[in-house]
Amino acid sequence: MLNDSKASEENREPAGPIYEKVPVLNRFLAAAKPSAIYRVMDRVAARRASGAAVISLSAGEPDFDTPRHVCEAGIAAIRAGHTRYTQIAGMRALREAIAGKFQRENRLDVDWRDTLVCSGGKQVIFNALAATLNEDDEVIVPAPYWVSYPEIVQLCGAKTVYVPCGAQSGFKLTAEALDAAITPRTRWLILNSPSNPTGAVYSRVELQQLAQVLLAHPQVLVLSDDIYEHLIFDQLEFFTLAQVEPRLRERVLTMNGVSKAYAMTGWRIGFCTGPRWLIDAMEKLQGQQTSGASTISQHAALAALSGPQDFIEHSRKVFQRRRDLVVDQLNQAPGLRCEAPQGAFYAFASCEDLIGTTTRGGSFLKDDEAVANALLDETGVATVHGSAFGLGPYIRIAYALDDVSLRRACAAIQHFCHTLAR
Ligand code: GLU
């Protein structure tokens, strides 16, 4: 017996090949899609590695360097030995600065204990949804949407209820559409203003109208993703739901981060404020997950939030100028149509009139993904197809790039459109 079992031990295949053959993935993960944005970014990296020149309008991240005083704060933190864990929810000094930010910029009276620091905005969303969703719960996501919202809902085993919000409603959710989408199973609504991918911005009145509907449905929580708050153009004023309707405060999670406002995408710091029970639940989850955000990044984020704020206005002006440039140029490309977005750093251009044409390289453009692929393959300009964001046929152009590269990219797109054959 002993020998037999030894023999069977020896015959056992090593763990690697067995795991490759057996479907061991969690079923929610197995059904989730990888980020379409990162897929394009990977293709850009591969093309560059093979020596090809690419202008990437794919990833949404500011091209500026992180402000110097913020970097210095990170370096000083390392030098001072701030290289150990912080509290799970974040350093108290940073949480106080976050509470101060919500007070100063959003007129939300926030206790620092009602804030949470996470490793990027994505972790805020993941924590919030994973802490609250059960199977069969529904999350309302206005479409087009940032690609990761439905996938995070999927990872939590819940169901996304998409509400189409096309160009005719300015890509925004209306009160009527929200009302029609809510069911007894609705647990969350995700709002994102300024929006990725469209740049749409909700006015105070539009938020008030949504709030009226939400007040009638006390089971619905709201995630207000305000990450592009400071990138808002044409003298528009930014409003967030909890500010506009204080009666919703007890069920709104207001989230933000330093990534877009201070060009700190790689530092991975997101934060939020919401009802204490939700913050506590998210902290509990985070305590078994990452233990908290990087200490060094937290020191840098503290410097960003409490130091000089002129960087924000400077970059806002630059992005507004680039928006004007890109929208003007895109509208000169035959077959593309693009409204001027009011915020963020994305242009969402309709490519409907390109569908059904053939490129000089012989690619038939059957949909917006084919358009984005052919643009990359034949002109070296990387964009992300709109259908990845839940609305086609569009392409998303992230104009977080210097003017010279933007002009070159737009000229290449125009040339591409001019040379299509019907
Ligand atoms: N949020 C950015 C974008 O939409 C960065 C990529 C990501 O995290 O999805 O491009």
Instruction: Indicate the proportion of strand residues.
Output: 5-15%
How is the main sheet built?
Answer: 7 strands, mixed
As for the CATH topology of the largest domain, it is: Aspartate Aminotransferase, domain 2
Residue windows where pLDDT falls under 50 for at least 5 positions: 1-12
Instruction: Compute the average pLDDT.
Output: 94
The coarse silhouette is globular
Count, helices: 16
Cα separation of the termini = 75 Å
CATH superfamily heading of the largest domain = Type I PLP-dependent aspartate aminotransferase-like (Major domain)
The domain count comes to 2
Give the beta-strand count: 12
Q: What is the spatial order of strands in the main beta sheet?
A: 2-8-7-6-5-3-4
- What ligand species are in this complex? glutamic acid
Radius of gyration: 23 Å
Order of helices and strands: HHHHEHHEHEHEHEHEHEEHHHEHEEEH
Structural class: alpha/beta
**Helicity, as a percent range:** 40-55%
